[in-house]
Amino acid sequence: MIRKFSLVLALLCLPLTAHAQELQSLLQDHQKTIAKPSRKTVSTALDALVASGLSTVPQFLENWQSKGVYSRLEDGLFFYGKKTAQGVELADVDTGELIATVDAKAAKQIKPNGGVRREIASALVQFQLSDPDIERRSGAVEAIARDMSAPMLGPLLASIENEPDSVLKTRKEKLANYLSARFADNSADRVVAIEKLSGDLSIEARAVLSQILKTKLAVSEGDAEGNLATTLVVGQDISRAEAYEMLAAKMGLPAILSDNDLRLVLEAHVQGGNVAGFPVAQLDDLEKRVAAYDVLAAEQRVPARATEASVTQALNAYQIHAVYLESDKAVTDAAAQALASVQTRVGVNQFFDLSLDAISLASIYFLAAVGLAITFGVMGVINMAHGEFIMMGAYTGYVVQQFVPNYTASLIVALPLAFVVTFAAGVAMERLVIRWLYNRPLETLLATFGISIALQQLAKNIFGTQARPLTSPGWLDGAWIINDVVQISYIRIAIFVLAVLFLGLLLFILKKTRLGLEVRAVTQNPRMAASMGINPDKIKMMTFGLGSGIAGIAGVAIGLFAKVTSEMGSDYIVQSFMTVVVGGVGNVWGTLAGAAMIGTFQKGVEWLNPSNTLAAQTYMILFIILFIQFRPKGIIALKGRAAGD
To answer: Does residue 208 belong to any structural domain of this protein?
Structure first.
């Protein structure tokens, strides 16, 4: 029954062999290559398919790449195939029409390996560059970017003029310039393309220039052959041992033997307790080992070895050059000049990027420390629980987001609410604990340290030890990308703006309001302020609450990019105190200056030693210790009668 069914199917398929279509005819010209493809042989068939210009070629390449092509065993014709319960459905490669369903043994599935599929993908890209679907065009462009090769230049240039999408067109033009710099037909076109790269800071552009300037090492007795990049100086550009090892490999000179090499060779030539006439017991002496080896070499039983004299002679006789793989000197000269220009621009932009990072870090330190600067300056209280007010603000933002799912609205609610919560907590702490410990700094430090531990444990009991998310609004996602070197996240920008707003607000409060006047009076001379009718206790309470409230707002800002945990405050308390001490106690401008100095110094150390961020913290502390030795009152010292207290 099965044989009869197969016979009927074969008879149904007979008419199809009589009128091979255009693509089928082309495929039959390369039947063996397509049926059994290999990476070395498939290029001939692919070139023929691409050159044919047939509209059916892209679909065939896609099916071939995805193992969807079958070869019918009886005649070798190719079809698109799909396995079913009845067998294999065969479709015509020219029309796509279903021809018949044959037994699975009557058709062989073509399964190209990974190397062949990559070759097919490269050929397929040329068609996808002009595909109506922008996703496929974009994918083709990125495929070229990942594996730039000379055959892609022509199709890419041809697709640019009719590209409707402006962004993708710009990307194609840039990529075409990269390919032209490496693979254009004449030197002048390559030089023009390379000169355009001198203002391109992208990694791709630098990679193209580096590829053009790639070198190999060559050895010569006189002038180097080819496009010379530089002549290496032994002992400066290359070590003496490495230079001779290269000479030995290229020129067939004797090798330098290590002590271990000598031992192994001599052990293989021990005869009757002697090696070349030397007793084994004497071979502990290096000079005897060398002498024994030289005897063996003179007898041609082992290869000759290099001596210091022969090494020196060889290094004097030969030169080692770095020669460009690119033979065109005009091209390499243009590439070297362009790369030097790019590296200069990259260096300038890296400095700018580092400056932005420093400003961003300084704004964070300023927000975290400005509240402490006010309380410390007015009250002289070393508040070790200041970091926990930052933590309370961050958790306030987290709680708000549980009730207000809109992240923008929750942020608007969380900022003033965090201020209110931490302001109240600060006032309560001042009234219950701090007010009884004025002018007793050691007891105040111990008390606030104990409060910080208690607040941390309370947070653990309420929220657990796991980090809680404080999600930023969608408009704060991503980064402002100025170029391929300089970028800064929108969250950091928002924190910087927030720091500037608070700087302005604090200056307004301190300079333009009655509260600010009274705070400044108490800060500079508490006794004189009291004699003028100002209540120092009330001012201290309000000031402590204000500093705590600002710390709460800082906690919301910091929580947007850092983990919100019960210990997060301890990550900023040390930096906050250092900022206050360096800037100048009780001075907003001093706090700003201290934050700028510490942020810049820390980012500078991290840039010099990026693999060890702990080193930045250590060096920063050492720097501050040295700084306060020369300027103990900070950058901007407190003025007034109390300044000397």
So the answer is: yes
Low-confidence ranges of the chain (pLDDT < 50): 1-20, 640-645
Non-local (6+) Cβ contacts of 429 within 8 A are 385, 451, 544, 548
Identify the CATH number of the domain in which residue 363 sits: 1.10.3470
CA separation for the pair 147, 471 (Å, rounded): 38
C-alpha separations of 360 from 68, 354, 400, 598 in Å = 55, 10, 26, 12
Is the CB of residue 522 less than 8 Å from the CB of residue 378?
Answer: yes
Residue 327 falls within a domain, yes or no?
no
Q: How many domains does the chain have?
A: 4
Is residue 112 domain-shared with residue 190, that is, in the same domain?
A: no
Q: Are both 95 and 143 inside the same structural domain?
A: no
The reported pLDDT for the residue numbered 378 is: 66
d(CA 619, CA 606): 10
The answer to whether residue 334 sits within a structural domain is no
Size (the chain), residues: 645
- Would you say residue 427 lies in a domain? yes
The pLDDT value given to residue 19:
38
Examine the domain organization and report whether 204 and 243 are in the same domain. no
Q: 355 and 446 share a domain?
A: yes
First vs last Cα of the chain: how many Å apart? 111
Helical segments of 464-569, H only: 490-512, 514-524, 526-531, 536-559
Entry pTM: 0.70
pLDDT digits 0-9 by tens, 333-348: 999 999 999 999 988 8
Please state, in angstroms and rounded to a whole number, the distance separating the CA atoms of residues 565 and 96.
62
Q: What is the pLDDT of residue 3?
A: 39
| Domain end (from 88, 118, 148) | 118
Nearest-CA neighbor of 631 among 566, 565, 585, 563?
A: 585
**Residue 3 CB contacts under 8 Å (≥ 6 apart), including other chains:** none
Strand partners, 271: 274
User: Which residues make Cβ contacts (< 8 Å) with residue 386, sequence separation at least 6?
Assistant: 371, 372, 375, 547, 548, 551, 569, 573, 576
Which domain covers residue 289, as residue numbers? 232-321
Give which of 207, 188, 185 is closest to 197, Cα–Cα.
207
